[in-house]
Amino acid sequence: MDVEKIIKTEKEIPLKSRTIIHFMLLYAKINEKISTMLKPFEVSLQQFNVLRILRGQNGKAANLSTLNERMVTKMSNTTRLVDKLLLKGYVHRQTCPTNRRKIEITITELGNRQLEQMDRAMKDAEDTILQNLSHKELEQLNVLFNKF
Asked: pTM for this one?
């Protein structure tokens, strides 16, 4: 990816700035690809993330705070995400019987079925995004990412 070409400048960009621009361009490209993949399911990347977290609970309920802690992108509108998934029938929400201030959220059977389809589409998106990298390069890239 030639940063200077993409942002249409003839000026050489300093290495640190160029690296940050690279990250931002890659984020935008990856986000666009994943959003396109999720479009047929009418869920956002954040809603997809909530469903995956709930599936990972293995039937155990999660509360809003648990969801927010485990989100890839931290956000304060987790309630809104859950509300949208509730309308689609992908999650169930109930008040905790032992603490009425606590809301418990679980994934429904429909949510699990839809998530399985989304997983297949996500795998295809990952394969497309990472197609030019070998397994060894992916390992090296992850080692570098861990330095952050």
From this structure: 0.84
In the chain, the amino acid numbered 27 is Y
Would you give per-residue pLDDT tens digits along the chain (148 residues)? 677 778 878 888 889 998 999 999 999 999 999 999 999 999 999 999 999 999 999 989 999 888 988 988 776 788 899 999 999 999 999 987 787 888 899 999 999 999 999 999 999 999 999 999 999 999 999 999 999 8
For CA atoms 13, 19, 21, 22, the dihedral sign is positive
Q: Which fold has domain 3-145?
A: Arc Repressor Mutant, subunit A (1.10.10)
CA angle 83, 63, 145 (to 5 degrees): 95
